[in-house]
TrEMBL record:
A Pfam family this chain is assigned to: DUF3456
Location of the region described as Disordered in the Swiss-Prot/TrEMBL record: 69-92
Signal peptide: 1-25
Originating species: Micromonas pusilla (strain CCMP1545)
The entry's keywords: Signal
InterPro entries (alphabetical): DUF3456
Protein name: Predicted protein
Domain DUF3456: 128-169
Amino acid sequence: MARSPLLSLPLVLVLLLAAAATARADTEYLRDETRRIDDAVPVTCAACASAVTHIERALRRIDQTTFSSEGDAEATNARNAARRRRSLTHGRSETKIRDALGGACAFLRASEEREDEEKRAAMTRAGFDIAGACETIVETHEEDIEEHVFADGVDGLKDLVCVRLTRACPRLSTRDEL
């Protein structure tokens, strides 16, 4: 039984419209993805090392327990006892780590804005935009950094971020790693 060409015409039109909509959506997605990639600051080794140093400094503050009054000391002792019962030896939580990561980059951006325009422009041209590198690193690798810091602390963070994740620096250690 042969189909009439009039019955297949609506089918062809529907397929053409669907293909055009898909192509338009793909083009918009690629345009958005390209814009996002172009907005990211390239991370050089020096900028990565400096940004991670600031991130480490912010993350180290999480583990420090300071108290100003005796009531705070009692609360700190109670928290430490609860951690020992849960077998956690640190006061890190994923929320505190995430806040510290964002806070480190915000602090860098604020301190960079206080510098004069010429110095900031020269540093950016030289590939030493520390705040931009920090933001790029945190946006791209936030989950990996959180997992590492939660499990192992800040030890080895510079090697993880600058060598393994961003590949901005050459391998510094000679030991074999998996």
